[in-house]
Amino acid sequence: MAVKGGLKFLRKRKRAIQNIEKITKAMKTVASVKLRKAQLVFGNSKSFIDELGKIFHVSTDVGKLGPKFVKENFDFSFLWDSSKEAKDLYIVIGADKGLCGAFNSNIVRTARENIKGNPYIWAFGKKIIKPLSKYFEITSKYEDYSKDFSIEKMESIYTKIEDMINKKEVSEIFCIYTFFKSPGTQYPVCEKIFPILIFSPWSRKKIFEPSQVEVVEFFAKLYLRSKLFFCFQSSITSEHASRMRAMDMANQNAKRLIRVLDLQINKARQESITKELIDIVNGKTALESASI
User: Fold this and answer.
1) Residue 166 CA to chain centroid, in angstroms?
2) Helical ranges in 56-79 per DSSP H
3) What does CATH list as the number for 41-242?
4) What is each CA distance from 49 to 42, 112, 181, 183, 254, in whole angstroms?
5) Distance (Å, rounded) from C-alpha 226 to C-alpha 49?
6) Is 5 left (phi over 0), alpha (psi -120 to 50) or beta?
7) Is 205 exposed, middle or buried (0-12, 13-18, 19+ CB in 10 A)?
């Protein structure tokens, strides 16, 4: 069956797909380099969180515990008593760029499944702000956050959160982000990171300098700051891994389509040659018939 557009159209289409293949290959390479760098920072952040957990026993699983139970069983609670006007805060972390598969759509779906009521919502990433706005009223929007992301940039975010905590404007804080397990496995999660309940493994007779309350309070704030950085870095690392995998699949699809087009080009060229041979034979037969 003849292809619409003929041989010229097929060759033009093949060149276009070859250009796409070069782009996807380059983007895969760039994503893999960024992934290796992000993995190093993510690994250090995870190790730091684990080491903090060895110093004190930390829990965010408050459940239906009351202030009295917390006071009797925990050494410190980072703002357990919030005001009646306080609302939950959801930090939704997506990506600023696309071409990373279902990365952003999975975050939006997880947000729809977990966000209830009328909480504060902070959206990070250009690609999730618009789809998230269809379902929720976003309190704060942050674009281009992932560019040169560092602990210093995260400090400005944490300062706003700590200010809300001190004013007792928030009751609980949740992070919706993509958890990085390995370069081939990432999945969206909704994790509670506040309030923080701390139980000291040491005896109450231990002497603290300046005081136990100040030491544990400093630790609680350090843990919350570190946990926030971990969530952001996990999302950034997962984004690079998702983009690398998406570009790899796109590159394979481009190669597969080029092979199909090569077959179609060969078939179209053979059909063209056959048609020309038939025209020559028919012309020769007509000349022979005329001479007779």
Assistant:
1) 30
2) 67-73
3) 3.40.1380.10
4) 11, 28, 15, 20, 42
5) 7
6) left
7) exposed
Q: Check if the beta carbon of residue 154 is closer than 8 Å to that of residue 175.
A: no
Please measure the distance between the N-terminal and C-terminal CA atoms of the chain and give it in whole angstroms: 37
Sheet of 76-78, strands arranged across: 57-59, 196-199, 76-78
Chain mean position to CA 76 = 33
Q: What is the pLDDT of residue 181?
A: 93
CA distance 154 to 137: 23
Closest-CA residue to 170 (of 194, 196, 150): 194
CB of 70 closer than 8 Å to CB of 80: yes
Question: Mean pLDDT throughout 150-166?
Answer: 88
Q: How far apart are CA 177 and CA 236, in angstroms?
A: 9
Determine the pLDDT at residue 13.
92
Structure tokens at 197: 């309940």
Using the CB atoms, write b or e for 154-184: b if 16+ within 10 Å.
beebbeebeebbeeebbbbbbbbbbbbeebe
Outline which parts of the chain fall under CATH 1.10.287.80. 6-24+247-291
Single pTM value for the model: 0.84
Outline which parts of the chain fall under CATH 3.40.1380.10.
Answer: 41-242
Q: How far apart are CA 270 and CA 276, in angstroms?
A: 10
Q: How many whole angstroms from its chain centre is CA 190?
A: 13
Q: What is the CATH number of domain 6-24+247-291?
A: 1.10.287.80
pLDDT at 15: 94
